[in-house]
Every structure is written in structure tokens, then in C-alpha cells.
Amino acid sequence: MDRAERIGLGVAVAAHGALFAALSFGLLTRPDEADPRDALSVTITDEIGLESSSPSPAEAAPAPEAPEAGPPETPPPEPELTRAPRIETAPPPA
To answer: What sign has the CA pseudo-torsion 16, 17, 22, 23?
Structure first.
């Protein structure tokens, strides 16, 4: 390894070490800003809401209808089989 390669390797190792340190200490991150949210009121009870409050409860959803069946597709025509051309070999050299 000559002098230029040693210098390049040293610079690469130092840069990777600096990047690892910066990411480890969180120097390149922004602080998390929490979004203020409205509080929700929650009632935990056994007696309220035992009956459905909707005007007409929905029954099971009907199965989707399939599109109308069209005529069956005709299969493509079978290709004609042809013989491969005969390959003539050259006579062996004498």
C-alpha cells in the first residue's frame, strides 16, 4: 500500500467515525415537536350502549352480483406442425 492509499484509507475511516459519532449523539436530528391534540372523553361502563342506537340495523351485506356471462371464448387454432429441415453433414476429411 503506497502513501496515497494510506491517506485515503485514513480519511475514509475518520469520516465514517465522525458520521457514526454524529448519528449516535443525535447531532443531526431535529427535536420532536408534539402535536397538541384535543382530549376525548371516554366512558367505561356496563349499562350504557348495550342496545343499538341506529334507526335500522344493517343486515349482512348481500353478495356482489357477477357480470352477465357472455359467449365462451373460442380457443386459438392449433399451429400446423412442420418437419424440421434435414441437415446434411459434410463428409469426413480424407
So the answer is: positive
Q: Say if CB 48 and CB 54 are below 8 A apart.
A: no
The pLDDT, as a whole number, for residue 48 is 66
- Report residue 63 as a C-alpha cell: 353478495
Q: How confident is the model at residue 23 (pLDDT cuts 50, 70, 90)?
A: confident
Q: How far apart are CA 19 and CA 17, in angstroms?
A: 5
End-to-end CA distance of the chain: 60
Q: Which three cell numbers stand for residue 44?
A: 367505561
Percent of the chain past pLDDT 70, that is, above it, reads: 81
